[in-house]
Structure formats: C-alpha cells, structure tokens
C-alpha cells in the first residue's frame, strides 16, 4: 500500500465526520494550549526577571575597603582611575564609619518640647559622582561639586527621608542643619534611589568636610558598569583603586546572569503544568473513546477493505493514522492558541514575548503522540477483526 | 493459466460447538474459466460458509481449495489476503459503498491495497464504471444513486484490477425486479467478456440465468441439471 494512499484514506476517514473529529480534538487542544501558555508565559516572565536583574543588580559592583591604621588603601583621588576604565558608567567613593553612623542632626536651634527636632542620622562623605553611582536623582537643589570639595565648603546634601524627618522641604531660603555644633547649608536633596537605599536617611558631605567627623578614608566604592562588563570591572577595579594592594579589597560582584536565569526558570508554575498534562490525558482518553466508537461503526468498512486485499496492518495503520492526525490537529490548534495567548499576555504586561522554537514545534508533535497512543487500542481492535465477522 | 479457476476437493468446514456443526460436508466441485455458476439453497444450508471459503475469508477444516491452480489452504494469512485482493472481486448484497466518497473514489478503493500503480488509477476506475454503464454518475455520492446503480458501482469496484473470479453474495437481494434485471443483464455481458462469475442466491430468477447451477442443502452440494 502506498503511503499517500494510506494518508488519503486516513484524512478521508477523519473528514467523513468533521464535527465529531473537531470535537474529538478539543481535549488535546485544551491540554496543549495550557502547556504552551504555562511554559511560554513562564519563559517570558523569567526573561523579564532576568532583564531587571541585568539592569539593576548585574551591573552594580561594590568594593569594600578594609580599615587600615596608617596609610589609606584607597585614596580619594584614585576614583578617577576607576571611572576611566572602559565599561564603567559611574562610580563614587564613600566614607562611612561607626562614629559617623549615629550623629544627632537638627534643622534649627530652637528647643521645641512638642516635637522631636533632633534626629539621629548617618553622616557620610562621598565624591561628586554619588547620585549617579547610587542611581538616584537630585530631587531638589543640586549636589556639591569639585569646587565645594576643594574649598571644603560647609554644605550638605540630604537623603529625601532625612530631609522629611528634618522638616526641610524647600531650599530657596538656604536652610541649614546642625551636625553637632556646626551648621551646614543644605544645597540639595537626593531621592529616588535604586541602589544604596539607605542613603535616603543619610547626610552627605564633601570628603574634605567629612574629616571633622572622622571620615578620613574611603571605606566603600560604588561602581556601575554597562551590561556585561561587571565581571571584567570586578577584576580590574581593585587594582585601579589601590595599585599593589588590590587583593586586600573585597569586591562584591553580581551573580553571573546565567544563574539568575536558572532561578527564574525554576519558578515555572508546576500546578499549571500538571493541569495541562491532565488535560492531555483527558484528551487522549477522548480520542481513544471516539476512535473506538468509530471502529465499531465502521465494521462493514473494515470487512470491505479486508475483502479488497487489505492486510491487518493496513487496517491498523489507517485507524492509527486517523487518531494521530486528530491529535496532531489538536496539537497545531493548541500550539497556535497558546502562542497567541502568550503574545497577548506579553502585550498586556508590556513584556517581550519569549517563545522557544522547540516549544512551538514540540507542541504539535506532543499532540500527535497523544493521538497515536490513544489510537493504539482501537486500531488493534480493528485489525483483529475477522473479515467474515466484519462482513456479516 | 489453468482452465479451472476454482477447484474444491473434499472441503469440510466444522464450527466448534457441542456437538460440532458441519457447515460444509465433503464439497467437491470445479469452476472453469468463463463459467457462470449459481449456488442456491435455503438459508442455513451452508451457502455463506461456502462463499467465505471461496472468497478466502475463511479456511476449510479439511480438503483442498485451489484458486487459479494455487493451493490456498496451506497459505499464510498475508498471502491469502494478497491473493484475495488480486484475484477475487466481491459483490455484496448491501453494496458496502463508503457513503462519504464519490462513486469513482469508491471504485478506486479497490486498487489502494496491493502493488497497483497510483498512476492511471482514476482512468482505470472510469473505464470500469463505463463497463458497468455508470459513466454518467462518477462524481455522485452513493446515497444519490438508485439501488441498481449502487450495485453496479460495487461491481465496477470488483472489476478493478481484472479479477479471475467475481464472487457475488445475493447481489440482487436488496433490489427491485427492474434493477435486478439490469444487474443480471450486466452479469450476462461480463460473462460474454469471459469473466468467471459465482453467484450465491436464493432467487430463482437469478439462478435460472446462470449457465450452471449447484444446490447446497445441509452442507452437501449437488449439481443441478
């Protein structure tokens, strides 16, 4: 028997009862659709998570500088050597110490018994690149510049939470804050921090001013790299900051992106996968059931085919192919609906849909396999039929 | 090609039961090429069993059956199936046309099993339909045809591939007298063209048109004059 004849007979058998065939595919359609949506949305969402990691974490490097007694490991001006590195987007050196972490700061000298005017805030010294390095935004006013640092001007920039606590909302009257006994002019408020969020409750002063609070040496360097440069910069930054002593610095680099992706893939919703598989099994049972009914209805046809010279294997092949085609049709429809659904979900969430080609190809094949398995028993029944009985 | 198309020697067919039912008892007869044989007998006489044996749908319990000189009782299932497809054209009482396929597609069905070439199949089917006088109905669905036309379509299907033997089981059982006449006329024509025909029937009108007549009663075959 020619393969094309076999295919023709199977297709004709399927199309002889189009409504029944269409209904039979439904179970497979549901199962495949569920699987494709589950896997597709999981992959798409996973990619989004990785994308956010890439943007925020995967490019952030922190270099911790251990305290030394005599010569500082990292000089304030060595930051320049880091910003020169290719792949560095922004960098800032910060000095922080235990002594400066709990300084009382107040916005005026009035003693108001009804409210707490003195706040305990962290004071830290930082270079001018801090707003960019902390991925924040100057909400009001400005950050201090190299001139302020050189002249050791008594200026301060507040984190937005710190400013709120101190009751400073506008800067046009050049408000002052008192750290200890000295007054400092607030020239800017830093907010919208996406890195080093604790800066929002801090008071930032130029390094030259920070010396008064014991903030002598750089304790931390924040570096932001362009995407993919983190590993490289993490290796280069210590040597750039402290030539000869680079290995004494601790570099906190982001985890490599692949691991982030693996973690995201683990978040695939197992429940929906099980649901899809159950639908597939139900679909298979449906196909098996209907094919069995069809075989019983077509006993005379089987007898006729046997009388025309069809061997048992020809009969089995025809019914097997019919159920496989029904499964394949269900798989194709299910995969299409699933892909459209994934794209729709992505559009609604403004994600980039991520579709694995293997999923798009594998889903119809899975449907066909379901149909094939479901057709095994009915096909066997049809093939076992004795032509004498079938023609009776 | 041997002159005898069918050669049955001492064929018995027992059905396992308690006591065993002997449906064919020592049946021996031959059918020569070009013969037109009618097998008559009341229902339950063993007609259907004989037809099944002749059509290679059933194996005799003992005895020998040669079709075109080939001993069939020793053949395996696959070989019998091939022989059946190649040498025997069946015509059934209930036509057995596939309802969803056009007349010509039904006729073409006869050639999809076995090693017939795909090329020219439709032409051969059309020729077979012409031969039974159904050339004007080729694209009709079977349910649009009259009973006689349906049986002629089934005969065209049986004629595809040039069988040695046309085996007909009550071919006119579902037909009125006018259609019966048309089908019997066709049998006459086919016989004149040299085809070997075996018809199983209980209708006198059919059996009298045949060249030879055998009667089967309780499994025993008797030649009638």
**Tally the helices of chain A: what do you get?**
15
Strand order of the largest sheet of chain A: 3-4-9-6-8-7
> Order of strands side by side in the largest beta sheet of chain B?
6-7-8-3-9-10
**What does the oligomeric state look like here?**
heterodimer
End-to-end span of chain B in angstroms?
A: 28 Å
Q: Given this structure, which CATH class of chain B is correct?
A: Alpha Beta
- Tally of strands of chain B: 10
Strand content of chain B: 25-35%
Describe the structure.
The complex is a heterodimer of chains A (392) and B (225). With 392 residues, chain A is an alpha+beta fold. Chain A folds into two domains: 180 residues, no CATH class; 196 residues, no CATH class. By secondary structure, chain B is α/β, with parallel strands linked by helices. In chain B, a hairpin with a 2-residue loop joins strand 9 and strand 10. In chain B, helix 4 packs across helix 5 and helix 5 packs parallel to helix 6.
Provide tags for this entry.
A: 392 residues, 2 domains, B: 225 residues, alpha/beta, Rossmann fold, 6-stranded mixed beta sheet, 4-stranded antiparallel beta sheet, 7 helices, 10 strands, 32% helix, globular
Outline of this structure?
Chain A is of the alpha+beta class.
Write the layout of secondary structure elements.
The complex is a heterodimer of chains A (392) and B (225).
Chain A: H1 3-16, H2 18-56, E1 60-64, H3 79-83, E2 88-95, H4 98-101, E3 103-106, E4 118-126, H5 130-133, E5 137-141, H6 146-151, E6 155-159, H7 160-165, E7 176-179, E8 182-191, E9 202-205, H8 207-210, E10 220-225, H9 230-241, E11 250-252, H10 257-266, H11 270-297, H12 299-307, H13 312-349, H14 357-384, H15 387-391
Parallel strand pairs in A: 4-9, 6-8
Antiparallel strand pairs in A: 1-10, 1-11, 2-4, 2-10, 3-4, 3-7, 5-8, 6-9, 7-8
Helix pairs in contact in A: 1-13, 2-10, 2-11, 2-13, 2-14, 11-13, 11-14, 13-14
Chain B: E1 4-15, E2 21-32, E3 36-40, H1 47-54, E4 62-67, E5 70-71, H2 77-87, E6 88-91, H3 103-108, H4 121-131, H5 147-159, E7 165-169, H6 177-192, E8 196-201, H7 204-209, E9 212-217, E10 220-224
């Amino acid at each position: 028997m020619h393969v094309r004849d076999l295919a023709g007979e199977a297709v004709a058998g399927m199309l002889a009862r189009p409504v029944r065939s269409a209904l039979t595919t439904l179970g497979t359609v549901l199962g495949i659709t569920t699987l494709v949506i589950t896997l597709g949305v999981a992959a798409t969402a996973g990619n989004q998570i990785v994308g956010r990691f890439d943007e925020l974490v995967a490019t952030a490097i922190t270099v911790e500088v251990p305290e030394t007694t005599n010569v500082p490991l990292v000089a304030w001006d060595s930051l320049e050597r880091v910003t020169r590195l290719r792949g560095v987007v922004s960098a800032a050196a910060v000095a922080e110490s235990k002594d400066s972490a709990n300084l009382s700061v107040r916005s005026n000298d009035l003693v108001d018994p009804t409210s707490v005017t003195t706040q305990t805030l962290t004071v830290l010294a930082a270079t001018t690149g801090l707003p960019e390095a902390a991925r924040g935004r100057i909400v009001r006013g400005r950050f201090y510049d190299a001139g302020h640092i050189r002249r050791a001007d008594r200026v301060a920039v507040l984190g937005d939470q710190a400013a709120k606590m101190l009751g400073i909302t506008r800067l046009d009257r050049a408000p002052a804050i008192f750290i200890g006994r000295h007054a400092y002019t607030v020239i800017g408020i830093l907010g919208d921090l996406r890195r080093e969020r604790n800066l929002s409750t801090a008071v930032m002063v130029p390094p030259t001013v920070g010396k008064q609070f014991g903030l002598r040496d750089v304790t931390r360097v924040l570096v932001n790299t362009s995407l993919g440069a983190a590993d490289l910069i993490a290796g280069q930054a210590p040597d750039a900051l402290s030539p000869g002593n680079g290995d004494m610095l601790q570099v906190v680099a982001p985890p490599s992106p692949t691991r982030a992706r693996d973690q995201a893939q683990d978040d695939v919703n197992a429940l929906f996968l099980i649901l899809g598989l159950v639908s597939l099994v139900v679909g298979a049972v449906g196909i098996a059931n209907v094919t069995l009914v069809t075989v019983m209805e077509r006993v005379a046809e089987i007898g006729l085919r046997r009388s025309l010279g069809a061997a048992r294997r020809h009969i089995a092949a025809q019914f097997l192919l019919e159920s496989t085609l029904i499964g394949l049709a269900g798989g194709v429809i299910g995969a299409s609906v699933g892909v459209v659904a994934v794209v729709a979900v992505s559009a609604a969430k403004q994600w980039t849909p991520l579709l694995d080609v293997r999923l798009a190809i594998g889903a119809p094949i899975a449907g066909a396999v379901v149909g094939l398995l479901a057709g095994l028993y009915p096909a066997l029944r049809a093939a076992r039929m004795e032509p004498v009985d079938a023609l009776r | 090609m041997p002159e005898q198309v069918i050669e049955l020697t001492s064929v018995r067919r027992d059905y396992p039961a308690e006591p065993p039912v002997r449906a064919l008892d020592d049946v021996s007869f031959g059918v020569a090429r070009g013969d037109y044989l009618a097998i008559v007998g009341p229902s339950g006489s063993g007609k259907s069993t004989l037809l099944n044996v002749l059509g290679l749908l059933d194996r005799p319990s003992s005895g020998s059956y040669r079709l075109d000189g080939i001993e069939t009782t020793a053949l395996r299932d696959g070989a019998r199936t091939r022989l059946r497809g190649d040498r025997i054209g069946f015509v059934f009482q209930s036509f057995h046309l596939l309802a969803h396929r056009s007349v010509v597609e039904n006729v073409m069905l006869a050639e999809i099993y076995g090693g017939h070439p795909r090329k020219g199949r439709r032409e051969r089917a059309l020729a077979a339909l012409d031969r039974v006088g159904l050339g004007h109905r080729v694209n009709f669905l079977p349910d649009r045809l009259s009973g006689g036309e349906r049986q002629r379509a089934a005969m065209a299907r049986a004629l595809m591939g040039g069988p040695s033997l046309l085996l007909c089981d009550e071919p006119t059982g579902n037909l009125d007298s006018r259609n019966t006449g048309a089908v019997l006329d066709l049998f006459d024509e086919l016989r004149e063209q040299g085809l070997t025909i075996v018809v199983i029937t209980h209708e006198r009108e059919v059996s009298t048109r045949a060249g030879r007549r055998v009667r089967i009663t309780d499994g025993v075959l008797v030649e009638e004059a």
